What does this fold into?
Amino acid sequence: MLQVTGLSKSFPPAHRGAPPVTALDSIDLTVPTGIFASVLGPSGSGKTTLLRCIAGFEVPDAGVIVLGGTELSGPGVQFPTHRRGVGIVPQEGALFPHLTVAQNVGFGLVGTRRTGRRERVEELLALVGIAGLADRRPDQLSGGQQQRVALARALAPEPALVLLDEPFSALDAQLRADLREEVRELLRSLGSTAVLVTHDQAEAMSLADHLVVMRAGRVVAAGHPGTVYEQPADVELGRFLGEALVLPGEIERDGADVRVRCALGRLPVGHWHGTEGRCQVLVRPEHVRAGPAAGTGGVEGIVRARSYFGHDALLRVEIPGLPEPLPVRVAGRAPYRVGDCARLEVTTPVATYPPAEAKGCLT
Amino acid sequence: MTPSLSRRVLAGALPVLLAATLAACGTASGDAGEGPTLTVYTDQHAELISKLTQAYTDKTGVRFDIQNDATVGQLEAEGSATKADLFLSEDPTPVAQLGAAGLLAPVDKATLDQVRPGLSSPAGRWVAYAARARVLVYNPDLIAADELPKRLADLAEPQYKGRFAWAPSGAFVATTQYLIATEGEPATRTFLDAVKTNGVNELKNGNVRDTVEAGTHAMGLTNHYYWWILATEKGGPDQLASRIYHFPEVDPGNLVLSSGAGVLKSSPNSAPAQEFLAWLSSADGGQQIIAKDPSAQYPVTPGLASAIAGDLSDIKAPPFDMDKLADSAQAENLLKTLGMSSG
Amino acid sequence: MRRPAGRTAIALAAVAVAAVSLLPVAYLFLTGISLGDVVAQFAYPATADALAQTIGLTLLIAALSLVLGVGAALLVVRTSLPAPRLFTVLFTLPLAVPGFVSAYAAFSAQLTYAPRLGLVTSFGGAAVVMSLTLYPYVFLPSVVALRDVDPALEEIATCLRPGRWTPLLRVVLPALRPAMAAGLLIVVLHVLAEYGAMVQLGRSTLTTKIMAEMLDYGDYQSARSLSLVLMVLSAAVLLGTRVLTGRGRSGDVARGASRPPRRIRLGRLRFPVLVIASAVPLAAVGPTVFMTVRGLTGSARGTAVDWGQVGAALSTTLGYAAVAALVATTVAAPVAWWVTRRPSPASQLTERAVWLAHAIPAAILALALVYLATRLVPGLYKTWVVLVAAYVILFLPLAVASQRVGLDATRQAYDDVAASLGAPPLRTLLRVTLPLALPGFLTGALLVALDASKELTTTLMLVPFNADTLSTRLWATTNGESLDFTAAAPYAGMLVLLGALPVYFLVRATLRQVQLPHPPPPPRVPARIVVNSPS
It folds into this structure.
């Protein structure tokens, strides 16, 4: 189990006179053994610094890092990287260019006998699906193959924790999707504890058993990906995790039944922020069902834009009283064209948040 | 790059490096032998000094540590740590400066007496062991012998404009000092101005010789041995296109400058050092070697002539106290003001 | 906290190396120069003239070396020029010839064949002769950099802005900028400190003035004052090129799969280009080789060559050069590592400081070392130790510059990964960093060995008594002033042959360097991680 408590780290300013840059501000993080955790955050949120502190590349200013009961980093304690037992898969692999695939994978297998080492390398290469490439050089591999080698290399010494630093970002979309699926299954089958750092929310959510969202050096949400996505802690987080429309509304409460009145009608509330009166309403495209204009219920709008994805399509529908068009996901074959009328109905309870004072969300 | 390649390079290079390192460290100085070792600082032609010291070692067993291309600056920088016992200069200036700075012990009178008068330090600080003369070389294809100037001062005449080369060498500085001492600064300045206007600065004495020989210039001011060395190499004076010329009367253009040798006051080996000087300037010692040396310098004992360049007494040189060369500030200032320095 | 402690030790070592290499500069001040002394030098109009000539020559030679060096590199790497490997060796060959030797060879060739021309002793002629000996310093790094330019960038450039020269002007040359700056720095500092060749070519520069003060007038105070002027000029150059190279490396952007660079087909131009390409190395080393061969075989040869003496000088030269290369490589490493891995104002200033001694005329540097050695380590004066120290101080920048190129081929990410795989720092160094940086280290060592074996002025003053190197023997046969290619031929020939050996290895190291797979871009960590100082 990985336990990070109160971890802080700041860097000297880039220019003389500027304030120091706070990369990590009292971070707490717990990843139970065998769990795959994703740390999601925009660039500059401190997620990479967190990973580098865990790996021992950076020395934190404060806080404690404990892995499997051993304090790796804390007041007066600072394990050097090579004694931490932490495997790392860096961005773009960083394969040693002067070593073959087998030598790369075998790099961490010191102390193993030569024949045993070769067997273990073969086994690992088979595991990551590139058996037969043992004698290639890194520049003879495709990007995906390089990442597989990097993973095999990280797994070879059987680390207590695997750190993945945006390992899929340089790959093309299809390969990225396939590879991350594979990697998750592999790590899960080996029972590895892993922490993935990424700025790609789809990647983070599809892989994680446990999702951590970071912003400006702080953890702003942690938990099961579904919970974090459906009930984000604030509007900004909600927008960051996926496409969403935020619109003003007003809470109408009748005992336990909480509803919100807004431009899309009077909607049931799934996640209520707890106070009555004016509020913000977060609506996701998949919460809205589009029907023919002739129908009843919901509100009517005009399709202003349509993005076609094959399996589905995203409409942007202009609705009177809304500051911006509402994104709506429909089936790819649904016959909407720009200029068509559509009737929209919110089908899932929505989440509400306190009104944004500064933004002046009043209509 | 493959690791095996780099290993092969290393495997090949290491033995070479090791062997070379041993060789380098093995050539350190201080061969233990019988008799004292004298440390000679010199800016003379290295080959000549090597011959002279080798002959003396063969005769007496005294060994030498030789610092070639030595300068007064190096001695000054070394200060009291210097190992130098002797300084053998090529031009008189360095020994004159060392003498003036009080760094030289007086040379034995008997040694000084072996040498033609007027060539050594009048104060007895150093002894002459070789001499060179300032000369004019000319190319008969470009100028007839009867057109040549009769005096150095004639080069200021308009008919020589653009026809001669000169070089601001140490010997040229010495000539300037001589002129200042004998004719005064204003006259010297006028003359130098004319040289600058009429002549071409070829920067080095060797270049002066080469350009006259090649026909670039009709005449050139240089030292005698430059011409004689080239003549020897080409198989004799008649193999050269150019000729050597001494001014017919006593003239600054015939200035003779000594190579001087002195013993440093700080030397712990002054007795063997004085003995070496005595041999160096004796007619049956070092002078025999200098007389035969291809560097064509003049020996300085009476009656002995250079096998190549002839007898020093054939040159009508003006008398000159070469210790005056110790202070060159006036000449330096004049030459620099006129923009006539080398460099 | 081992890593920060290790870093601090390396930084301290680098600062110590820089401090030692600045000792000769300190000598100028120890012996007492006032600003008045410096100003007094400008009372003579010739001083300002020499300054102007120095700057003019430096600029012209820099420009010519740039054209020759980059042009030759383009021919070898980017055109269908036949036998590119052979031409790489040929283009590098001028490095094997000492500047004063090729200057005299050019001078005497002119005297022999065109006595009235006065070409090589003119301003332009001298600049050409000097450029022909110095351009390989631009050529070698340009070859490496050219092979590194991603062909995709050129293709994109062609699409965006059609035109035959667009890829060259908009993509290739800008990508060469760091290589050109590094090479130019070496060229410029060589020009500033050159004496023998300049005087032979009839040029009056600050350095020839400094030497004249010492040799003609024995005026060491003036020599030191002028050296200070030279030093200010060099410092300006050093800071100027820092501005030029201060930006990031060209490899900082993600690139596609590594493909061999596109070669321009010469077509009908093949023959004329071949002639021009052959003419450059021929003009650079031809006169020296010709005069040497003539000297060795000519009928005028009076005495037989003492090959025993030649052999002794050869092994001594080899020994000093080898030790200097080893020591320079060792002490350059912390400086190169610090400035490559922890770029900061402190590390960059330290690296620049190392260059300063490279720009002092060798005679002044030698005097400074005489002064310092007789006071600090009198027991070592006139032993090979002080001579090697002088070589190291003089040529350290060559090692640092090459090692930086080598270390650029490695990345912090490799070290990090190795550590995460359980490799302690020493194993990381031996298995990862050194193998990757080796070509750069090798190149640096060879350049140091090459320059050390050619060095004359410092060697004359500091060489142990009775020991000879090839260049001091060469000088001894010159009768003080002019090279005589009859007596000097065996030594000149040996020097060129000895120089050709490192040149061969240099070319191999260079070619090997460019065959490395393209390093993937560095991790997209925030910039602050790079500038992070050891805490």
